[in-house]
Amino acid sequence: MTIIEVTNKLKNSINELSETLAQIPDGDFFTRIDNKWSPAEQAEHLNLSVKPLVLAYAIPKFGIRLLFGKPNRPGRDYPTVLD
User: Fold this and answer.
1) Model confidence over 9-57: pLDDT tens digits?
2) How far apart are the first and last CA of the chain?
3) What is the DSSP string of 4-50?
4) What is the separation of C-alpha 54 from the centre of its chain, rounded to a whole number of angstroms?
5) pTM score
6) Is 75 helix (H, G, I), strand (E, B) or coil?
7) Dist. CA 58–CA 68, nearest whole Å
């Protein structure tokens, strides 16, 4: 998958999530059920989780190496990570 395809899929996912959240009535948006997170808390968690990733992907590769050092093992492909 190319970076353009990944970007497009992410944009589509964000749009779908925004549309889904917009359909939830205001009273339900902030309401917890069975002590589970409300839709508002879920959305906040997604936002807080993505913020560091945005920064990490914005930094050039050499900047990541300066901040975190060189990997101590070779990279792994997706099937290896799944195993």
Assistant:
1) 989 999 999 999 999 998 999 999 999 999 999 999 999 998 988 888 8
2) 21
3) HHHHHHHHHHHHHHHHHHHTS-HHHHT--STTPPPHHHHHHHHHHHH
4) 9
5) 0.63
6) coil
7) 15
Alpha carbon distance 28, 21 (integer Å)? 10
Q: Is 64 helix (H, G, I), strand (E, B) or coil?
A: helix
Question: For 48-81, what is each residue's pLDDT tens digit?
Answer: 998 988 888 888 988 888 988 988 999 899 899 8
Please report, for residues 5, 32, 39, 55, 73, the alpha-carbon distance to residue 43 in angstroms, rounded to integers and kept in the order given: 24, 13, 6, 19, 35
Give the span between the Cα atoms of 5 and 36, in whole angstroms: 34
